[in-house]
Amino acid sequence: MDETYDAVILGTGVTECVLSALLSIEGKKVLHIDRHDFYGGECASLNLTQLYNKFRPGQEPPTDIGRDRDYAIDLIPKFMMANGELTKMLVHTDVTRYLEFKQIAASFVYRDGKIAKVPATEMEAVRSSLMGLFEKRRAKKFFEFLQNWRDDDPATHQTLDLDSDSMEKVFNYFGLEPGTKDFIGHAMALHLDDSYMQRPARETYDRIILYTSSMARYGKSPYIYPLYGLGELPQGFARLSAIYGGTYMLDKPIDEIVVNQETGKFEGVRSGDETVKAAMLIGDPSYFRGGVAGKEKIRETAKVVRAICILKHPIPNTDNSDSVQLIIPQNQVGRKHDIYIAEVSGTHNVCARDIYVAQVSTIVETDKPELELRPGLDLLGPIYDKFVTVSPLEEPVSNGKEDNIFITRSYDATSHFETVVDDIHDVWRRITDGQKLVLKKREDGEGAQIQE
Questions:
Q1: Is 328 left (phi over 0), alpha (psi -120 to 50) or beta?
Q2: Are 208 and 216 within 8 A, CB to CB?
Q3: Domain span at residue 192?
Q4: Domain count, the chain
Q5: Which GO biological process entries does UniProt record here (predicted)?
């Protein structure tokens, strides 16, 4: 390990593996280390034995829910937008050749005590239980306005300006009810809270267009998900990085992050009595707890509570769907943060046949985190087994330019990858002195392979 690298990367989460692949493609010499003996870090996929070992050490997994190897249960479940940035990164980097995807069957939202499907087509919108007759007409006009908007054609603007008018003003212009704003803002635009209402409407417009274009791509829902679980994603990017010369070391403890005493800049990483030198360090927050050379590097911004639930049936009231994204907007249950439910099943090769894995997650607001998941858990029907975690949400305290130590963010409570992609862009700007990450379309890129 006495070589010198352009970058050392700590942790094999999706964020770190994408950055590793992108740097390797750019011709940088990358060494990628993880203290675990598996890929994925915080967002790994575990088999039954690993799952029970993690949450209930010493307890044998049950024998009545299939074989160990049938399982690849995500610790942090997230779905990908069919037209989203992560899908573009997969196509751009050609990682799609290592992975196969399956569509998530449907997207639902919780409203007025009931589960309702987020309309996928105009016909579904007309039949939807989400809105009354007059509200459907208003919503139809709102969506037509978004679809027809052209920046260079004032005739499509209806006196509104997406860059200066708030989203609240746009909603009110069409006379939409609070419940409709809820499902559009949280289940389609995927906002984390209601602060977006006061910001310029352009942001929400872009998010809704992403949702509807992703929906149009394959039909039923805007989300896709890799067969055999999310652990396949970092492995795919790791393979690509290796093709371009990246070096991977799993099961390697990190004993010290070495900083130059005089300049304060990062110099290398020590494992045992070996030290490797590099120009910069990128890593997930878990490697920086306790600080570096006496300086705090991360701060905790919140906690996220997650419950992994094994079910023997699909989630009730979701048309027996084999996979579901279900969002409970904060206002519907008197909270400050949404509750997310992501369900996959044996059809995604992540659990045995006729078994379903549903995960419920949210940001912690009280001193009884598990109780906060109750509105989501109550929608699942009988739960065969449940594993609950509370983990910190951490972020870097500085941009990393002073000492060349660039830290990523923890994975939040959302059940989609859009916030992870924002972090990838943010770290890329920081390590390249402000350059935007531009993904050129590959000539031979066919897009993600989707299994019907």
A1: beta
A2: no
A3: 121-219
A4: 2
A5: protein transport; small GTPase-mediated signal transduction; vesicle-mediated transport
